[in-house]
Amino acid sequence: MQEDDPQPHPFPEQALPPWRRAVIKVGSSLLTDGRGELGRHNAAALAGLIARFRDQGREVLLVSSGAVAAGRGLMAQRRGGMIQRQALASLGQTPMLALWQDLIEEPVAQVLLSHDDLRNRRRYLNAQATLQELLHHGALPIVNENDTVAVDELKLGDNDNLAAAVATLVDADVLLIATDIHGLYSGHPGRDPSARPLPLVKCITPEVMAMASGGAGRLGTGGMATKLEAASKAAAAGIDTALFCGHDPRALGALADDRLLGTRIPAHGPRLLARKLWLRHQPASRNRVRIDDGACQALASRGASLLPGGVTGVEGDFSSRAVVDLVSEQGRRIGRGLVQYHASDLQRIAGCHSEEIEDVLGFHNGDTVIRRDDLVLFDQAAATH
User: Fold this and answer.
1) pTM of the full predicted structure?
2) Fewer CB within 10 A of the terminal residue: the chain, N end or C end?
3) What is the C-alpha separation between 23 and 251, in angstroms, rounded?
C-alpha cells in the first residue's frame, strides 16, 4: 500500500544566493533535552549539514549556545545571578565542545570573544586574523561569548547578535540561524490561528519586530526578536540571513542543496568598508558626544565630518581615537565614530570653530572631532528628525 504524501511544508522553498563562507548559529533549545542535559539528536543532524557544506568546499563558523544549559545539568543548584551563570558557562564549555568534536571529523577550535575584543580595534583585528587562520587550516571555529569574565554592563548579550558580529568580523556571505520553529510568522503560531508564514522579509521594520512576540525558551537567552535584530545588523553589512528549523530534516536537506525552507532576510545595502563595518557592530558605548540638530543634518544629508561647533555635550572619560556614540539633542543614538580628541579637551572646544582649536587647547589634532571616514550613521532618516 502506498504511503500518503507528507504534509506540505508551511514555508515555500526558495533559492539561497551563492555563498562561500557562512556563520551558523545554534541555540540552546536545539542542543538540550529540556532538562539541562546536552542532547545529540539535533546536534548530529546539524553536524551532518556542516559536513555537507565542507565537502562542497565551503567554510563554516559555528556560534553555539548550550554551555550554560550544560553547566546547569552538572550543578544541583539551578538558580542564581550573574556569578553563577559565569560558573555554569565555565562548567558547560567542555561538554558542549566535546559534543561537537564527537560529531565532526575535523578539529574544532574554541574561540571566546568579549565586549572588549570587538571594541578595541587591535583586538578586533587579532580575533579576525585568528578566525581566518583557523579556517585556513580546516578547523571548525566554535565561537561563544566569554561569559566567565563578562559583567552585565559589558556583555555582548545574546548569541544571535554575537553571530551577526562574527559574520561581519569574518566577512561571511550568509548568516544561518537555526531555530526551533520553521521561520518567522506574522504572529505567534502557537497562539494565533491566523498567523501566516513570512518566507521573505525585505526590511526589519517596527511592524516586523512586533510580530516577534514572546520570549525565549526556558533554557535560552533570546527569542525571535533577537534573531531579527541580528538579521538587521547582518543586512546592513551586506550579509543575507536565513532562519530555519534546526530539527526539521526537510529544512536541513534543502539547505544542503542551496534551498531554504524558512525565512530569508536579504542584505539591503552594499558591503561597508572594513573600519565602518567594525564601528557599526561595536557594542553600545557609555562614551557619548551630544550634537545639535544642525550637525545631525550635516552628517545625514551632506556626508560631512563632525566639527567641534556641532558638539553640545560630552559624556564619559575617553582618549583620542576611542569609540564614542553620537547622540542628538533629543537623546537618539544616531551614529558612532572614532573621536580625535580626549574627552576633557573636547569639552573645552565644544561649540568652537575649527580655527579656534589650537588657541583653546594649545595644540591641534585636526579640524574635525570625527572624520567622515571614521563615522557610521545608524539611520540617516532618523538623524534628520
Assistant:
1) 0.76
2) N
3) 17
d(Cα 66, Cα 10) in Å, to the nearest integer? 28
Count of helices and strands (H, E) across the chain: 15, 14
288 pairs with which residues across the strands? 315, 325
Within 13 Å, how many C-alpha atoms sit on residue 85's CB side?
A: 16
pLDDT in tens, 46-82: 999 999 999 999 999 999 987 777 677 666 555 556 6
In which residue are the cell numbers 543614538 written? Answer: 333
- Find the farthest-apart pair of alpha carbons in the chain and give their distance in angstroms, rounded: 93
Helices marked H in the chain? 28-31, 41-55, 67-72, 82-103, 115-119, 121-136, 159-169, 206-211, 224-236, 249-256, 274-280, 293-302, 343-349, 357-361, 380-383
Name the one residue in this structure whose C-alpha cell is 541580528.
Answer: 230
**What is the Cα gyration radius of the chain?**
23
297-336, pLDDT tens digit by residue? 999 999 899 999 999 999 999 988 889 999 999 999 999 9
Take residue 52 and report the three cell numbers written for it.
555537507
CB-based burial, 206-241: b 16+ in 10 Å, e otherwise: eebeebbeeebbebbbbbbbbbbbbbbbbbbbbbbb
Query: What is the distance between the alpha carbons of residues 198 and 214, in angstroms, rounded to a whole number?
Result: 17
* 279 grid coordinates: 564601528
